[in-house]
Amino acid sequence: MLILASASPRRAELLTQLQVPFKQISVDLDESVKSGEEPRDYVVRLARAKAEAGWRQAGHVDPVLGSDTAVVCQNKILGKPQDQADFKRMFALLSGAHHQVMTAVALRSDRGLQHRLVLTDVSFKVVSPQEMDWYWQTGEPADKAGGYGIQGLAGRFVTRIQGSYSAVVGLPLYETAELLKEQHLL
Ligand SMILES: Cc1cn([C@H]2C[C@H](O)[C@@H](COP(=O)(O)OP(=O)(O)OP(=O)(O)O)O2)c(=O)[nH]c1=O
């Protein structure tokens, strides 16, 4: 059975949309950025590492999907906010501006390791300090790259998206389906 190497409930929910049976495992990885590493290289490296780690952990039998999402603003990676001050620093960059969401998905099986990289442009309205405080208090930003969830309460801040909505949430469905089809798993 296909394995999703992710602790993310959002990725699991997205993967059910492809109607392929799967089980979920979590893998533990060092997610630090290497010095001088480009954001797109970083998400590809992590997605591939998650798939590879899952493949090893599950005994080199079942095919494994791994994915990674980064919010990139002015070529800086905005990770998950450490605390409220960190969150407000991120939102000051996102407010009234455009940023890019980079998501990579990788599939490891006995046919090898393949990946796809998906870039999506997202625009935010100007977000006031009061709205930032309110949004932080909802608890939604804490476990999310860039400190927001487009599928949740932050949907109200998004004025425009060009690219893949499912990639912003965490798993690009079109590209994931392509990878699975290539390996005759869908
Ligand atoms: C930008 C954005 C991110 N996110 C989420 C997707 C990912 O779960 C998370 C990005 O962090 P990731 O490090 O990509 O993933 P994760 O740690 O949640 O899960 P795992 O490594 O076990 O697969 O942020 C949203 O849910 N909505 C959004 O709009």
Automatic annotation (TrEMBL):
<feature type="site" description="Important for substrate specificity">
    <location>
        <position position="69"/>
    </location>
</feature>
<keyword id="KW-0963">Cytoplasm</keyword>
<protein>
    <recommendedName>
        <fullName>dTTP/UTP pyrophosphatase</fullName>
        <ecNumber>3.6.1.9</ecNumber>
    </recommendedName>
</protein>
<dbReference type="InterPro" id="IPR003697">
    <property type="entry name" value="Maf-like"/>
</dbReference>
<dbReference type="InterPro" id="IPR029001">
    <property type="entry name" value="ITPase-like_fam"/>
</dbReference>
<keyword id="KW-0546">Nucleotide metabolism</keyword>
<dbReference type="GO" id="GO:0047429">
    <property type="term" value="F:nucleoside triphosphate diphosphatase activity"/>
</dbReference>
<keyword id="KW-0378">Hydrolase</keyword>
<feature type="site" description="Important for substrate specificity">
    <location>
        <position position="151"/>
    </location>
</feature>
<feature type="site" description="Important for substrate specificity">
    <location>
        <position position="10"/>
    </location>
</feature>
<comment type="function">
    <text>Nucleoside triphosphate pyrophosphatase that hydrolyzes dTTP and UTP. May have a dual role in cell division arrest and in preventing the incorporation of modified nucleotides into cellular nucleic acids.</text>
</comment>
<comment type="similarity">
    <text>Belongs to the Maf family. YhdE subfamily.</text>
</comment>
<dbReference type="GO" id="GO:0009117">
    <property type="term" value="P:nucleotide metabolic process"/>
</dbReference>
<dbReference type="Pfam" id="PF02545">
    <property type="entry name" value="Maf"/>
</dbReference>
<feature type="active site" description="Proton acceptor">
    <location>
        <position position="68"/>
    </location>
</feature>
<dbReference type="GO" id="GO:0005737">
    <property type="term" value="C:cytoplasm"/>
</dbReference>
